[in-house]
Each structure stands twice: as C-alpha cells, then as structure tokens.
Amino acid sequence: MTRVGLFIPCYVDQFYPQVGIATLQLLEKLGCEVFFPMQQTCCGQPMANSGYEHLGAGCNENFVKDFASFDYIVCPSGSCTLHVKDHLHSARDEHAASQIRSRIYELSEFLTDVLKVEQLEARFPYRVGLHQSCHGQRGLMMSQMTELVAAPFSKPVQLLKLVEGLELVALNRKDECCGFGGTFCVTEEAVSVKMGKDRVADHEQQGVAYIAGADMSCLMHMEGILRRKGSAVKVIHIAEILNSVIDEPAN
C-alpha cells in the first residue's frame, strides 16, 4: 500500500478544512495509506514571496522532519507544492530534503501521474468552469499554456471528465491569472482586484454554477469578489468534486 504524507496548506487548514478532509477521503478511496503529521506548519512560501526566504529555515527543517519517511507527499495546492519542490533545503539533512523535493505532488498530478486514475465513483451534476492556477500550470506543468504551439492537455480536466453529470464549460481565456499571486494581492491590491473581476466575469458569462480549481488561495480571492457583488456562483476545490456523490439538483 502506498504510504502518503498529507501536507495541508495554512489557508486550507484555517479557512477551508473541508478541502483537507475531501483530499484525505479521496486518497483513501483510491487505496492509499494516508498519514497527517500533526506538527506540520507553513511551508515558508509567504516569507519567500516577500523576499525573506532566509526566515523560512525553521519551516524547512520542520517540513523535513515531518515528511521524510513517506513514499509520497501530496498537497491540495499547486503553489505550496511548487514552493517545496523548488525551495526546500535543510542544513541538517539536505539528502532528505532532496528526496522530499522529488516525491511531493499536487493532488491532481498525483492522481494522474502516480496512481494513474482512469475512473472515479463521483457525481457532480452542475455546470463548472475550471480556473487553472499559474503555479500549477506554469510551474508544475499541470496543463498546457495557450501561448505555446503544442498539443493541449490538462490534468485537472482529465480528472473532471471522469465525474458523472459534470458539465465543464469552455472559457474565453482559460489560463488567465486571477490576480491573487500570494503577497501580490496585498502589495498591488487594485491590480489584483481588477484581474480577479475579469477572471470571475469570464466564468459568469458562461453561466457556471461553480468555479473549480486546484488552489484554494486563488479560489478564495475570487470568492471574495463573488460575495461582494452578490453573485450566486460558488467556488469549489477539485478534491471536493472528485470526492462527491451528489444527486441531481432540484428544479
């Protein structure tokens, strides 16, 4: 049985615990033995994004201590996964840090690349738009970038197509940034909000009931915009959809 260390980002733990629960349940359904290290903390990405990566040394050492013993580390966030993959180092055990960097996966890529999931017992009978976050798309290569002359692919789309009843809509600008960008939304608030409004508008124009994504941070940004304008559109993490068995919505 595959031993998986479950890494849950801070904002999921604090604001969207249902995403962590859905990730756990989904991995267990697919035959993984899942462990949640209770001493895990932030991966250090906020400090690094703000130019203070050296202050994240304690986070790095704690991460190595917590996750060195697992076959794989799985995280329901492209941005946190990419940070660990690109920036995790350890003054105490660099070999262990190196092994973790090679064994950490965002949830969608773990399901497609490692478990090679081809069928799911999931049902989500709604019209859904997919937001493909920048870190996952351009850092982890979870989907093709539209500016490249290359065959299109998307690991999240591949999984969503396995969900019964789900209608995945085509967006006008499918890989456009939502404007969250971690600390960017704090330092460049006005630009961030305008980008978020544009991203939300594209989904609303397609008549979606949900905006789905693999990064709850981006979805949180868009959720704030949706709530302030009184929109009926909701956000949902892909783990929640892949773990769902929902009847037809009432007319």
Describe the structure.
45% of the residues lie in helices and 12% in strands. Strands 2-1-3-4 form a four-stranded parallel beta sheet, with helices on both faces. The protein has a four-stranded parallel beta sheet with strand order 6-5-7-8. It is α/β, with parallel strands linked by helices. The protein is built from 13 helices and eight strands. Helix 12 links the parallel strand 7 and strand 8 (234-237). The chain has helices at residues 10-15, 17-29, 45-49, 57-67, 78-87, 94-103, 107-114, 134-139, 155-160, 184-187, 189-205, 216-228, 238-242; strands spanning 3-6, 33-35, 72-75, 104-106, 127-131, 167-168, 210-213, 234-237. Helix 5 runs antiparallel to helix 6 and helix 11 (189-205) crosses helix 12 (216-228). The model has no long low-confidence stretch (mean pLDDT 93). It has two domains: 3-114, no CATH class; 127-242, Rossmann fold (3-Layer(aba) Sandwich), CATH 3.40.50. It comes from Filimonas effusa. One of its GO terms (cellular component) is cytosol. This is (Fe-S)-binding protein.
